[in-house]
Amino acid sequence: MAKDRKIDLVILGLLSHEDLTGYDIKKQIDSGISFFWxxxxxxxxxxxxEMEKSGLVKKKQDKKSSGREKILYHITNxxxxxxxxxxxxxRVSNDLKYETLLKIYFGGGEDRSVTLRNIEVFExxxxxxxxxxxxxxxxxxxxxxxxDHINYYLTVTFGIDTCETYLKWCVKAKKLLRSGSDGSKxxx
Amino acid sequence: MAKDRKIDLVILGLLSHEDLTGYDIKKQIDSGISFFWxxxxxxxxxxxxEMEKSGLVKKKQDKKSSGREKILYHITNxxxxxxxxxxxxxRVSNDLKYETLLKIYFGGGEDRSVTLRNIEVFExxxxxxxxxxxxxxxxxxxxxxxxDHINYYLTVTFGIDTCETYLKWCVKAKKLLRSGSDGSKxxx
DNA sequence: ATTGATATATATCATTTTGATATATTATAA
DNA sequence: TTATAATATATCAAAATGATATATATCAAT
Lengths: 188, 188
What we know:
The structure is a homodimer of 188-residue chains. Chain A is mainly α. Chain A has helices spanning 6-15, 22-32, 41-53, 77-88, 99-106, 112-142, 149-179, and strands at 57-61, 71-75, 94-98. Chain A has seven helices and three strands, in the order H-H-H-E-E-H-E-H-H-H. The longest helix of chain A is centred in the C-terminal third of the chain and has 31 residues, at 112-142. The termini of chain A are far apart. Strand 3 of chain A pairs antiparallel with strand 3 of chain B, so a sheet runs across the interface.
């Protein structure tokens, strides 16, 4: 593991279960872990190329050579070792960027309706997210006895718990803004 | 507002309250909003330069010219307008990157102790964060009647609520991992 | 059968952000 | 007086973002 590229670990983690193309990797990021991680083709394909050079993954020709070119990647032993090292490394960075909170923080000089609207927009996004997470949870509960699934389940309940907290906060926040101690001074 | 540079809005938001140097801006990001946003000198200084060229901020010579060079920035009317536009724009991206959850998600093939340790590390980080946020909250409650403070207060309670949810989840997660339905199969 | 729309698949690029380092001054503590 | 921490600006390589280009495959509707 040469550098600090987080996308490498995501790729190795996904490849540790099955061989995948770059496109597959993007799809799995978008579906399985999008609540707490994002990925782009612009980082995935270059990472795959460099990881092949450094021996963490290797290319596999797709058996049926019919149709469009398709590059399947397979994790090597070095790749597995790198993944395990990272899993045991205690240094982690959880980087959260809530543009919503930025707008709330800086919205104090504007009319209250601006902040209220920003909270509503957030609330709607969270409600959507929560619905999806609940479906994931139901599906996982059907197969919870299988290997790996407890870990998946934990990330899903993390998402659900935080979403529910967000929604409760939205209700509280709107109430405070509407009837709060500063109700008269709508403008600065 | 030419592009998609989020750091511009952070800078404008901070400058809308008082004139600041690039260094001040970094300090205020680290202290006031670090729970939900981060910033680096490597993006702040270049952004200030470009925003000066495009007329969103202007340089102000520090009155007392004694000592080290120091460039104070002041928000212009165009800058204020850009800030207000952004506050009213409903498109937001809340990008969360939890390396902790990544390790939990991909840790299903390892010994349970690895995931347990990763949860503990997270738990400790959150506890520290929570302590700081509670101090912020107490301080804000003393001056809640002042302009802007309801908005600051809301971001702090958001942080506290989510931290407390994280901690509850940690307890649940550890319990499930220790006595879970899959307790026998420590290894894959 | 053909058209159009969507999904699959790789690749690249400009812009933005990160994280680190370089440089220099000022304040403070030992 | 000397070391160290805080202040202050600037720059750079590496990484991530978000968009676009290119091409094939699939599938439904005409």
